[in-house]
From TrEMBL:
GO terms for biological process: signal transduction. It is found in: Cell membrane. It is a multi-pass membrane protein. GO terms for molecular function: odorant binding; olfactory receptor activity. Belongs to the insect chemoreceptor superfamily. Heteromeric odorant receptor channel (TC 1.A.69) family. Keywords: Cell membrane, Membrane, Olfaction, Receptor, Sensory transduction, Transducer, Transmembrane, Transmembrane helix. InterPro entries: 7tm6_olfct_rcpt. It holds the Pfam family 7tm_6. Its main location: membrane. The chain crosses the membrane at residues 100-119, 159-188, 231-258, 270-288. One of its GO terms (cellular component) is plasma membrane. It comes from Lasius platythorax. It comes from the Eukaryota. This is Odorant receptor.
Amino acid sequence: MDASEYYSGYRDFVWAVELNRFGLELVGLWPKTNEVAKDNYASDLRITLPLMVVSLKLVIIRWKRTALLPIVKMMAEDWMAPKVDAERDVMVKRARTARLIVICGYVLMTFSFTGVIVLPCFDLPFRRLTNLTDRDRPLPLQTYYFYDTDKSPQFELTFLIQAATIFFAAITYTSVDAFLGLAILHICGQLENFRRRLSSLASRKDFDCALRNSVIAHLRLIRFADKIEDAFALMMLGLVFYFAIVFCLYGFLLLSVITDAENDVSLSRVSYVMVGVVTLLVHTFLYCGAGEIIAEQCEAIYRALCDLDWYKLESREARSLTLLIIRASEPFRITAGKIIPLTMTTFCSLLKTSAGYISFLLAKRD
């Protein structure tokens, strides 16, 4: 059989099965080789999951927008309330940390956007180019297209839509996380100021008034933390599973790129994967680290109450501290879905689990 007859027969085969193939490919059921299937599966997850998480954040924040307004109002009240210089210094310190996180997030977002969108315009691809989906003019996102993207204006329109999608996704991802960090760091500063006021409670001449104000302030902080958890708990639950899956895929991809003996290691490919790994690690570390700080501040408040010179008080005044001590002994935590506490222990457990799956994938590859 000559080449012309072979290709003619192949065209007939494509014509015969194209409608069936179209339907099965829409739901991911068209049979493919193992190598192609694995590459497509990993690529689909690395593209689809981040966009799904961004959509989840956008939907939840819009849904919980009314719950965010009291958080902003309480922060404004704390800043406008009269305070001593030491308390203001604590608030400024926490706010500077939150601002630094925002700046780092914007810098990382700009670097990622430049690498994915701008560099390909100068024929400097920042990601791995494959023959499976990439054509003569590669686009920022690797996926399948049901039309010819090499022609104009299809290429320009698709490129513009993908660039806008990546930009707004990055803004949403960074801004929502930065606001959560701001709220958590603010309440950490308020807990620290509250602990300092408690340390002088026993020596106050107006003990009853000071105790009443302390109880009111403590309940206000508890409500503040409850509002934060109510607004972000569902989103945090999704992010925990997102981190476990995508970090595993990115880690596997990074090790595959580095240990691939057949191909030269491309700096752009390594940088592309490293940006994804670092972004995931930093965001998850900030979530869990902020939750750990809140737990530590609550524990510090409990210790401050236990260390009060209660024996110098009258018996009635000493007994009135009991309920405050009991409530302070139960620290409030930021959780993912009101199930998983966001602490450094949780972060380490996620890393161990992801590392185990990466090892499993590497073993299956070999």
